[in-house]
Design goal:
With about 500 residues, this protein is α+β, with helices and mostly antiparallel strands. Helices cover about 45% and strands about 25% of the residues. The chain has helices at about 10-25, 25-35, 40-65, 135-150, 155-160, 165, 180-190, 195-210, 215-225, 225-255, 295-300, 325-335, 350-360, 365-375, 380-400, 440-445, 465-480, and strands at about 70, 75-80, 85-90, 95-105, 110-120, 125-135, 170-175, 255-260, 265-270, 275-280, 285-290, 300-305, 325, 350, 400-405, 410-415, 420-425, 430-435, 445-450, 460-465, 485-490. A hairpin with a 4-residue loop joins strand 16 and strand 17. Helix 1 runs antiparallel to helix 3 (about 40-65), helix 7 (about 180-190) packs across helix 10 (about 225-255) and helix 14 (about 365-375) packs antiparallel against helix 15 (about 380-400). It is globular.
């Protein structure tokens, strides 16, 4: 069946031209607005240069829009682009790993969105980006890919006649942010402190233009003369900072929804700029549970998915199942979304020889810091503080490190004041390395490294595990029913 070519939405032309205007905004304001009446030859030349460039750029954008198209098939998506040198790319739908959909505040009133289709390839053409398309087309692409990968494809002309509710598979909502979650996230992320540097930066910028330093100094001097004014001003600053932090957190994490169907995980967030990330469940390579010191004290955690596709580089939290989950809710989400990944709460601890090995490692930072104190003729007791913190941290690291193999599951735990748990399955590991130094060999311990498929590949390491466990891990890994790459250095 012949399928109709689709173009990007015409709004693409104006958005691209708006980007050009933004990039040249300083030159436009200076030469065309501020210096419009200057008759100097240089200024006249720059004005006409900008006029000609902007006109040619607008024509180029229109031609690029006219020569860019895509065709959606039941089995593949075809991209056609290029003005002088025409190019065509055919990507089978089965190879698409993740789908990212972003609807900015500018796009929302026009009912259009942007879609990125990620494949498992590592080359520069690993993804297809459809910058501005209608939401109807975006839903059609998403659902066509889902049905193709689930083995239930439908002809495109039939899909186009179906409404979106009938197209979508049944989704289960596992988590959505509440007011309590937003407030807790605001205080945990310390967003309320952001207002202070913003105010300071605004003061210096305004002072450069209008020289308000004298007036501000006079106002502060009058303020400090009264304790009542000090208390009222400090209270107002605290209240405004808290409200500012809550509002900023709401803009960032408001409407955060984690849902799933039988094949996919959907992560949606954003109040003004809406983003939707679709991950195939069997493309999840590993799971990381991360807790900073503050999060450990508050009993919350962040669950991150290591996937085979490429995560948005500008939004590295996109693979996160919300950064401020109550720890029990985090465990429940992992069980519901990825039942093949099981969290084991009791793990094997490192042997005592690992502690001695860690204590024997040279504390280079403390040594360099002590030398600097000596050179600068500063009291050396600061050096004692550094060494106490260094060796105390090593002891905590020993206590917080664990490992276990539970059937097909490999799980590591590490951290000093923070806590990180790494969970993966045997078939998801593509490379392992077991090695030990001369000193580790004397203590019969080793360092274990694993590699999971991702973009870039994900490396994980645990130090000072028993050598016997390392050997048993290699045997366990060799039983996976795929080709492996391993290194065993004694």
């Amino acid at each position: 069946m012949r399928h109709r070519k689709q173009r990007l939405h015409p709004l693409y032309i104006f958005l691209e031209f708006a980007t050009t205007l933004r990039n040249f905004s300083v030159a436009i304001i200076y030469f065309i607005v501020l210096k419009f009446n200057v008759d100097s030859g240089f200024y006249i030349f720059m004005r006409y240069f900008l006029y000609i460039y902007l006109i040619l750029n607008f024509i180029y954008i229109i031609i690029r829009w006219l020569t860019t198209s895509y065709i959606l098939n039941e089995d593949y998506i075809q991209m056609n682009f290029g003005i002088i040198s025409r190019q065509r790319r055919n990507i089978p739908l089965i190879q698409i790993q993740n789908i990212q959909q972003q609807t900015t505040a500018v796009l929302r009133p026009f009912n259009v969105t942007s879609v990125i289709l990620e494949t498992g390839s590592v080359n520069k053409n690993a993804s297809i980006k459809l910058n501005v398309i209608s939401k109807q087309q975006a839903d059609l692409i998403t659902n066509t890919i889902g049905r193709s990968q689930s083995g239930t494809p439908i002809e495109i002309n039939k899909l186009e006649r179906m409404d979106n509710e009938n197209l979508q598979t049944k989704r289960t909502v596992h988590f959505t942010t509440t007011k309590k979650d937003i407030i807790k996230a605001s205080f945990t992320s310390l967003q309320f402190l952001v207002l202070i540097p913003i105010l300071v930066s605004m003061y210096f910028r305004v002072n450069e233009l209008y020289n308000i330093e004298a007036q501000v100094d006079h106002w502060i001097a009058n303020l400090l003369m009264s304790w009542i004014f000090i208390i009222i001003s400090a209270s107002l600053l605290v209240i405004v900072s808290i409200i500012f932090g809550i509002v900023m957190t709401y803009f960032k994490y408001g409407k955060f929804i984690v849902s799933s169907d039988s094949k996919h995980i959907f992560i949606q967030k954003g109040v003004f700029n809406e983003k939707v990330f679709t991950i195939k469940k069997h493309h999840v390579q590993a799971i990381k549970i991360e807790q900073s010191l503050i999060k450990r004290l508050l009993g919350i955690a962040e669950v991150k998915l290591v996937t085979a596709g490429e995560i948005d580089k500008e939004e590295n939290t996109f693979s996160s199942l919300y950064p401020y989950l109550p720890i029990q809710k985090a465990y429940l989400l992992i069980q519901e979304l990825t039942p093949n990944f099981t969290v084991v709460h009791t793990m094997e601890r490192l042997p005592k020889t690992a502690l001695w090995m860690n204590l024997l490692r040279i504390p280079w930072f403390g040594i360099i810091f002590t030398i600097l104190l000596f050179i600068l003729n500063i009291d050396l007791w600061w050096s004692a503080v550094i060494f106490i913190l260094a060796y105390g941290g090593r002891f905590l690291q020993y206590l917080n490190t664990g490992y276990i193999i539970n059937g097909e599951i490999l799980q590591f735990k590490s951290g000093t004041f923070s806590k990180n748990v790494f969970i993966t399955r045997r078939e998801k590991i593509i490379e392992v390395r077991l090695k030990r130094s001369w000193l580790q060999k004397q203590f019969k311990i080793a360092t274990l490294k694993t590699v999971n498929r991702s973009k870039p590949v994900h490396h994980e390491m645990i130090e000072d595990i028993p050598w016997k466990f390392g050997e048993s891990f290699i045997k366990w890994f060799e039983k996976r029913p795929v080709k492996i790459v391993k290194s065993n250095s004694k």
